[in-house]
Amino acid sequence: MKVLLVEDDEDDYLITRDLLSEIAQPTIDLEWVNSAARGREAIRDGRYKLILLDYHLGEQTGLEILRDAVAAGCKTPIILLTGQGDLEVDVEAMKAGAADYLIKGKIDAALLERAMRYAIERAQTLAMREKQLAAEVSNRARGEFLAIVSHELRSPLAVVLGCIDLLFDAELPPDQRELLEPIRRSGNHLKALVKDILEFSKLEAGKLAIEHVPCSPRALVAEVVAMVQANAAEAGVDVAVGAAEELPETIQTDPTRLRQILLNLVGNAIKFAGRGAVRLRMSMACADD
Questions:
Q1: pLDDT score at 14
Q2: Is the pLDDT reported for residue 160 higher than 60?
Q3: How confident is the model at residue 203 (pLDDT cuts 50, 70, 90)?
Q4: Per residue in 22-50, pLDDT tens?
Q5: What domain count does the chain have?
Q6: pLDDT band at residue 287, thresholds of 50, 70 and 90?
Q7: Mean pLDDT, rounded, for 152-172
């Protein structure tokens, strides 16, 4: 474990080095700097697991260096060392962000090891909490962004679906009506997905409700095939569907999510098939009680 000691007294450095050498685990790799200026530079380096900082450093105090390090964003735990006990300095050290405050004449190897271990554990706990908070803020921002985007998509999508319905009401040739049908199915599917995006916060909270409504598996698969047919034809892939005789006419499921799963599976199959055929077979399996 790499430890920095900022100490302008060589005798105190030797005492601290000897105390650290008595610590069995972890092995301490001690680096010593003997001035405030070199200490500031070394702290900015950010290579250390822990910093031991003397209170008296010539014209400057360890408190000044500590405050500057914390203000600069230093996350390394810093233990302040002083030659005499002073409650006021102790309080100021804690307010400035010190992980601990130790009196040199009262330090032994066990006390130093315990103070270092606790300081590192507290720093790791704080870092973990900051990461969790940042992740929560990011998730909230992402959910808000998706909600805004979804609301913005709903209006133009409603116009598109409305125009498609008007075209269906018009007297169109059969071949044109046939072209409109997959567009309408895809539009309705997209509308359902936009609705799901609006429920994104529920999904992340584990509260997204799954529908259980009657649905025809054959009709749903037929919709999926119609939606991917254009891509399949362009890729030179034939999409075929087969169904086992025991397949029920109606099942209880969430048709929107099942449709999306099938679209992903069949779409990937077409994408990676190259040329040839993609075959989708439907059958029923009974789970054991």
A1: 92
A2: yes
A3: low
A4: 887 788 889 999 988 898 888 888 889 99
A5: 3
A6: low
A7: 84
- Among the candidates 107, 123, 158, a domain finishes at 107
Q: In CATH, what number is assigned to the domain containing residue 278?
A: 3.30.565.10
CATH of the domain at 92: 3.40.50.2300
Domain extent for 182: 137-204
Shared domain check, 86 and 15 = yes
* 117 assigned to some structural domain: no
Concatenating the DSSP letter of every residue in the chain gives -EEEEE-S-HHHHHHHHHHHHT--SSPPEEEEE-SHHHHHHHHHH---SEEEEESEETTEEHHHHHHHHHHTT--S-EEEEESS--HHHHHHHHHHT-SEEEEGGG--HHHHHHHHHHHHHHHHHHHHHHHHHHHHHHHHHHHHHHHHHHHHHHHHHHHHHHHHHHHHHS---HHHHHHHHHHHHHHHHHHHHHHHHHTHHHHHTT-PPPP-EEE-HHHHHHHHHHHHHHHHHHHTEEEEEEE-TT--S-EEE-HHHHHHHHHHHHHHHHHHH-SEEEEEEE---PPP-
